[in-house]
Design brief:
alpha+beta, Alpha-D-Glucose-1,6-Bisphosphate, Chain A, domain 4, 8-stranded antiparallel β-sheet, single chain
Length: 157
């Protein structure tokens, strides 16, 4: 049985501010729970770009690999395939929709996969709470970063 998490949030920042954060993986460590170790190729997001990093507490850093599989700038949608420890995979689709000039709605759809057999049972038991709460936490971190960037941008004007 798959584990699916689909948080949605209203962000008090324009869609362009949020989109810039989502498509700049080098900046992710400033707000997502990831320490990026390598990006191939470097630069803004492109389909096929791979991001390698580590997540988790400092005493137990776990390898994470992500790959952009879809980037639709016109519709403000991205797709990512994510490889986590213990054979866990995530198909993540993120979409942004403008709600006026200074707000947008961000939708996460995360479809978690676990390996078959005892490894899958173990992964579910150990990480179920994180699989259910992690996407909402990521959305919250993204919203805070976008709102902060928007406030800074407005204070300069």
């Amino acid at each position: 049985m798959p584990i699916i998490s689909c948080p949605t949030g209203l962000v008090r920042a324009p869609i362009d501010v949020v989109w810039k954060l989502l498509t700049d993986p080098a900046g992710w460590p400033t707000f997502f729970d990831i320490r990026v170790t390598r990006i191939v190729p470097l630069g803004p997001a492109v389909v096929g770009q791979q991001i390698f990093g580590e997540s988790g507490p400092r005493i137990l850093r776990l390898a994470v690999a992500l790959e952009y599989t879809e980037i639709d700038a016109a519709r403000r949608q991205i797709g990512l395939n994510i490889q986590l420890p213990l054979g866990i995979t995530v198909r993540e689709n993120v979409s942004c929709t403008a709600v006026g000039d200074s707000r947008c709605r961000v939708n996460y759809h995360c479809d978690f996969g676990v390996p078959p057999g005892w490894r899958g049972v173990l992964a579910r038991m150990m990480l179920r709470r994180e699989m259910e709460a992690g996407p909402a936490d990521s959305l919250s971190r993204l919203a805070r970063a976008a709102e902060k960037d928007y406030l800074l941008l407005n204070s300069r004007l």
